[in-house]
Design goal:
mainly alpha; 8 helices
Length: 148
């Protein structure tokens, strides 16, 4: 696999092409924030998947769920599998010399969408945040922290 590096312009291009319009501005803001840390990415990713509520004027009335089927957890697991391991699942994709940030987002979003039976567009914003987290924090550090 070619080594991916954090490139703001490449992320902005991928966001503008892949992420639903209602999520674009906030994801681009995070991409351009020099001071974001993994906690910020986790919190925002969980808000995008609906697993954490944004503080605001609306008070959620549903009971919290401790489901083992966490979408954010699944996204992080897929990103870990792709970036941090040499598993067979993504062996073909890792060998491609022209792998770009946009391609990786699409590959992982497709895998997650199929396992949760949702449209790819619903999950691309959260996958973008997860990949951004890896590349901003640093691959080795992110993989060590997220190792199970």
């Amino acid at each position: 696999m070619s080594d991916l590096i954090f490139n703001t312009n490449e992320f902005v291009d991928a966001i503008n092409e892949l992420v639903p319009s209602y999520q674009r501005k906030s994801i681009i803001d995070i991409a351009q924030d020099e001071n974001s840390i993994e906690f910020d990415f986790d919190k925002f990713g969980m808000m995008l998947t609906g697993e954490e509520n944004k503080i605001g004027i609306i008070v959620p009335t549903g009971a919290p769920s401790d489901s083992v089927n966490s979408m954010w957890g699944a996204i992080k697991a897929e990103v870990f599998d792709y970036i941090c391991t040499t598993s067979r699942k993504y062996s073909v994709e890792r060998k491609e010399a022209g792998v770009t940030i946009k391609n990786v987002i699409t590959i992982i979003a497709t895998a997650i969408a199929s396992s949760f039976h949702i449209a790819v567009g619903v999950i691309t914003g959260a996958v973008t945040i997860a990949l951004m987290s890896v590349l901003k924090v640093g691959k080795n550090a992110w993989c060590a922290v997220n190792k199970k």
